[in-house]
Amino acid sequence: MFAGLSRMSKLRPLVLCGPSGSGKSTLLKKMMEDFPDKFGFSISHTTRKPRPGEVDGQHYHFTTVEDMQKAILDGQFIEHATFCGNMYGTSKAAVNFVREQGKICVLDIDVQGVKQVKNTDLDPLYVFIKPPSLDELKKRLTARKTETEESLLHRLKVASEELDYGTEDNFDCIVINDNLEHAYVQLKTFLESQVFGDK
Ligand SMILES: Nc1ncnc2c1ncn2[C@@H]1O[C@H](COP(=O)(O)OP(=O)(O)OP(=O)(O)O)[C@@H](O)[C@H]1O
C-alpha cells in the first residue's frame, strides 16, 4: 500500500498554461516525441454532441448538461468551462486513470482553469508558456492562419490579461518561447529536475 502510494506521489500532474498562440501545442509535441512513455492525457467530458468518427470514452466522455452539472456540484471535476454553449471539463477520475497507468497527466488549460485547479487537492506542477511579446504573439497567430480578425483580437485581449497572471508566484516554471529550441531546453530542464525527479 505504501509502496503504491509513494510511486503514485511521484506522478504529479503537469499543468501547461499560456495564452493562445504562446506555443503550448508546439512544445507539448516536442515533449511527447522526446518522452513518449512518460506522459498521458486525461479524457475530458463534454456536453457537445460527438462529431463523426469521435468515440465516447476515447476522444471525450460525452455527457448531458444535467449529468455534468450534477457531477460538478458533487465535486467530481477539477476544472470546467463553457465554450460556444457547450460545457467541457476534466474529472478527477480521468486524471487518476492516467496516474494509475504510471504516467504523468498533462493538463493543457487556460488561466481560469489553473485558478480552479488551485482550489483542488490535485497538487500538480505548473508551467506557464510566455510569448516574447504581444506583438510577436499577434504575428504567430496571424501566420497560423486559424483566426478571423475578430477571434484574433479576442485572443490578444485575453492574452494580455493572462500574461499578468503568468508570474513566478503562480507558476513553478516560466518558459519564454522566443526561440523554440531555447524554450524547449528550458522546459526539458524543468521536467528533468522537477517532474521526473519529483520527490
Ligand atoms: N518559438 C517559436 N517561434 C516561432 N513560431 C512559433 C514558436 N513557437 C510556436 N510557434 C508557432 O506559433 C503558432 C502558435 O503556436 P501553438 O499553436 O503551439 O500555440 P498554442 O499555445 O498551443 O495555441 P492555442 O492555445 O491557440 O492552441 C504556431 O503556428 C507555431 O508553429
Automatic annotation (TrEMBL):
<dbReference type="InterPro" id="IPR027417">
    <property type="entry name" value="P-loop_NTPase"/>
</dbReference>
<dbReference type="InterPro" id="IPR017665">
    <property type="entry name" value="Guanylate_kinase"/>
</dbReference>
<dbReference type="GO" id="GO:0005829">
    <property type="term" value="C:cytosol"/>
</dbReference>
<dbReference type="InterPro" id="IPR020590">
    <property type="entry name" value="Guanylate_kinase_CS"/>
</dbReference>
<keyword id="KW-0547">Nucleotide-binding</keyword>
<dbReference type="Pfam" id="PF00625">
    <property type="entry name" value="Guanylate_kin"/>
</dbReference>
<dbReference type="InterPro" id="IPR008144">
    <property type="entry name" value="Guanylate_kin-like_dom"/>
</dbReference>
<dbReference type="GO" id="GO:0005524">
    <property type="term" value="F:ATP binding"/>
</dbReference>
<keyword id="KW-0067">ATP-binding</keyword>
<feature type="domain" description="Guanylate kinase-like">
    <location>
        <begin position="11"/>
        <end position="192"/>
    </location>
</feature>
<protein>
    <recommendedName>
        <fullName>guanylate kinase</fullName>
        <ecNumber>2.7.4.8</ecNumber>
    </recommendedName>
</protein>
<keyword id="KW-0418">Kinase</keyword>
<keyword id="KW-0808">Transferase</keyword>
<dbReference type="GO" id="GO:0004385">
    <property type="term" value="F:GMP kinase activity"/>
</dbReference>
<dbReference type="InterPro" id="IPR008145">
    <property type="entry name" value="GK/Ca_channel_bsu"/>
</dbReference>
<comment type="similarity">
    <text>Belongs to the guanylate kinase family.</text>
</comment>
